[in-house]
Amino acid sequence: MSGRLDGKVAVITGGASGMGRSTVLRFLDEGARVVVADLNEETGAETLELARARGAGDRVCFVRTDVSQEEQVEAMISRASSEYGRLDCVFNNAGIGGAIGSTLETEVDDWDFTFAALVRSVFLGIKHGARVMVEQGSGGSIINTASVAGLSGGAGPVAYSAAKAAVINLSRATAVEFADRKIRVNAICPGGILTPLLHRGNEEPMKQRLEQLQPWPAVGQGEHIAGAALFLATEDSEFVTGQALVVDGGLTAMGPNLARRAREEQQEAAFDFVGVDKGTTGEAPVVRRVGGSSDWS
Question: Which of 5, 89, 228, 237 could form a disulfide with 233 if both were Cys (CB 3.0 to 4.6 A apart)?
Fold first, then answer.
């Protein structure tokens, strides 16, 4: 049976875990050839093993990539052409939690690190992905992971929210720029998705918390984002560009205000800590109590 992505080649950043890994496996199931780009080589190897177990090992490869570095992003995109002969889709999905805590205490370096990982990376993926697609002359799809945190205040840390808002507008602006080349650019705005980036090994407590925050009776999974990415990667979305597709179980329909709810439920002292969360990169977070020493516990 043919798949919806037969003959297509995709690059997926942050593809070694969470939403990215789910999308890698879904795209492979649909017949695509996939370049998995991630900073974490250990989870990258795990993802390749999962692909081999599904019989798709000859259609996937891994490239260790720091998506904030232009030469590495360019090499990642070039790998698709050298390995599989073309490029049809770039999913700029790599992400981190980034700078957390009060704006009054946030370090400039942590702010810049957050924007490099979440915004500069998307710009670079669009720049180098679109260059290849323009040269091919057959169009393509660029998908960027934003967040419901980019749609309003109160749905995430300040730096993260600002970065994701930038991703949404960057997607819209470049969608206009590349429309005449038939290159579609869209963003996906996940709500609370139960991935390692969010639960950090405490899956059940986070699952219960998410169930309380949204109206939909089941929590978001990486597969839900993979389904949205599949739609945006196929010709089913041929007339869809410049959009921010919300996948959040009705969270924004209800109105998130997550920081206030967390404080009211006494589940999180939102501004007791400050620092930077480096996500699933394999690098440890650097967090300290306000007025105190480093302490993540």
Answer: 89
Q: What is the pLDDT of residues 286-297, one digit of tens each?
A: 888 776 555 544
H helices of 30-120, where? 41-53, 70-84, 108-115
Is residue 84 part of the annotated active site? The answer reads no
Give burial (CB, 10 Å; 0-12/13-18/19+) of 190.
buried
Q: Does 4 fall in a domain? A: no
The count of structural domains within the chain is 1
Phi, psi at 40, each rounded to 5°: -95, 105
Q: How far apart are CA 235 and CA 93, in angstroms?
A: 20
Largest distance between two CA atoms of the chain: 61
Q: Rounded mean pLDDT of 4-8? A: 97
Q: Which helix (H) or strand (E) holds 89?
A: strand 89-92
Return the higher-pLDDT residue of 202 and 109: 109
Are 158 and 116 in contact by the 8 Å Cβ rule? The answer is: no
How does pLDDT run across 93-121, given as a tens digit for each residue?
999 999 999 999 999 999 999 999 999 99
Structure tokens, 37: 């780009």
> Angle 57-63-64 (CA atoms, 0-180°, nearest 5)?
135
Neighbours of 7 (CB within 10 A): 12
Within a domain: 253 = yes
Candidates 115, 160, 178, 273; catalytic one? 160
Q: What is the dihedral of CA 135, 141, 142, 147, to 10 degrees?
A: 170
Does 294 fall in a domain? no
The domain that contains 38 carries what CATH number?
Answer: 3.40.50.720
Residue 212 is part of which domain span? 9-289
**Residue 295 domain flag:** no
> Residue 155: helix, strand or coil by DSSP?
coil
Token pair, residue 263, equals: 């404080």
